[in-house]
Design a protein that fits this description.
The protein is of the alpha/beta class. The chain has two domains: about 10-185 and about 225-250, NAD(P)-binding Rossmann-like Domain (Rossmann fold), CATH 3.40.50; about 190-220, no CATH class. Helix content is about 45%, strand content about 15%. It has eight helices and seven strands; from the N terminus they run E-H-E-H-E-H-E-H-E-H-E-H-H-H-E. It has helices at about 20-30, 40-55, 70-80, 105-130, 155-170, 190-200, 205-215, 225-235, and strands spanning about 10-15, 35-40, 60-65, 85, 135-140, 175-185, 245-250. Strands 3-2-1-4-5-6-7 form a seven-stranded parallel beta sheet, with helices on both faces. Helix 1 crosses helix 8 (about 225-235) and helix 4 packs parallel to helix 5.
Amino acid sequence: MDIGVKGRTAIICGGSKGMSRAAARRLSLEGANVVIVARTPATLEEAAEAISAESGVPVSHFATDLTKEEGRAALVAAHPAPDILVANAGVPQRNVRYQDLTRAEWLHWFDVHFFSAIDLIHAYAPGMCDRRFGRIVNVSANFIKFPQTGVPSHAARLALAGAIASLVREVAPYNVTINSVLPGLINTEALQDVLKGRADARGVPYQTVEAEVRARTAADRIADPQEAGDLIAMLCAAQMGYLTGQNIINDGGSFQGLF
């Protein structure tokens, strides 16, 4: 199926690793002009070369820290007019008690998981509306659907979901969509680090912890990053112009609610 993105410019945040890299790969294979963005030049260069070698389409890369306002401004200045934006910024989290978070820490997590997306959407959505095409996909997490303790990004991700719910009504008439994917267990380096930390803290093998979390999914497995990347890419398709404002869970059946 041709998803109608050939020749479109796609900015993929966090594109050097994990599910964002997988999304960049799929969009490049579909003929999009992909720009991958992350903090580390070496990993960006490796990813861009590997994706381009497979797709036959040049892949650009831009190193900046999207968790900081100046980093986001640098990206917009360098690449001002994309047709597709995949917003995905993150940093390692430690388990915390919410009542112990300082104001500075709250602001930090909002910078990482709220403004990293909102600032880019504010910068790019007007041009998308003018051109009558835009696909914005925010990468969040399945846990925004159910209460969490000890996860400092939770509140910021919920705030982003609320903001997007309002924003879609302003841009939808111009063929610009904004959706969020809510992944669960995806076999990325970040998940592996979390599971290793849990195993080390308990003094048990990594495989023990992996089996425990895997059993929480109806699918009884951890997803390959490309499965998540393909979903992101499909939400960027030209045919997806009527699907907007959705929080789409992709977690192998971990979430047991209806809504």
